[in-house]
Amino acid sequence: MIRVDREDAVALVTVDRQDALNALDLLTLTMLRDELSGLAGNDDVRAVVLTGAGDRAFIAGADIKYMSGLGVEEAMAWGALGHEVGRLLETMPKPTIAAVNGFALGGGCELALACDIRYASSNAKLGQPEVNLGIIPGWGGTQRLARVCGLGVAKELVFTGRTVDADEAHRIGLVNAVHDPVLEKARETAHVLATKSVLALRLVKRLANRALGGDHAANLAAEGEAFGELFSSADAKEGMTAFVEKREPRFTGR
Ligand code: CAA
Q1: Are residues 43 and 141 located together in one domain of the fold?
Q2: Is the previous residue joined to 249 through a cis bond, with omega within 30 degrees of 0?
Q3: Residue of the nearest CA to atom 2 in ligand 1?
Q4: What stretches in the chain show pLDDT beneath 50?
């Protein structure tokens, strides 16, 4: 259902429910939450890639058959579980990358949006088609799509429920790049990120997550504080010394 493979400091998380185009039911979403929670707290893992099994889908959304039987309370709990998964991807103290290898619809698009970086294969199709089911995005889509693509684009996509292909997704900023095979591109970036200072990446992710909300002046003050504090780290000393000595830095995470 959820596979986790390790390649050195990179974890590759694969949603594998191909008979339903990797749509997430309660069991799969719970497993995904548990695996991501473990990876978030595992210091040996320095970057996480999320993808779907097979070549047709990343995640075709929340499982509609499962959802069709839910009442109000259950639907709220279901939404909360999806939000928990999104928050883990968004806030875990290491980079997360979505390798969108096909359909990323509804909850699938929402989990991709919660990742720090999104790459798409040329056959990818992304969108928030919930309106066609008489419901709305419930795992962060009403907020994160606007943060990534701007409010005007987000409203058009969420109101109409239309899907976009890889080229349009790239044009509107929904994905960072289009590449075949997409997993290769995601893994390559993840391995590059795994060589960086974990301290610097953790801080810069936390600060970047504040960029579109809260008080601008307070966010800049937080950046100034973090910038200064990092100068007490061995990694900062190593990174700057390595530049001066014209060699590659060796970061230790301290
Ligand atoms: N939930 C449950 N099953 C799904 C599914 C989903 N989201 N998406 C696909 N499947 C299943 C299909 O029911 C089908 O199963 P059966 O063979 O048992 O009938 C199988 O996957 C293959 O799908 P299709 O035969 O439909 O394949 P297709 O190539 O004709 O169409 C598709 C592909 C356009 C992605 C189509 O499957 C589709 O529209 N899926 C639904 C997409 C969707 O609406 N996602 C949003 C869900 S709502 C949500 O996610 C809410 C939220 O915010 C949390």
Answers
A1: yes
A2: no
A3: 63
A4: none
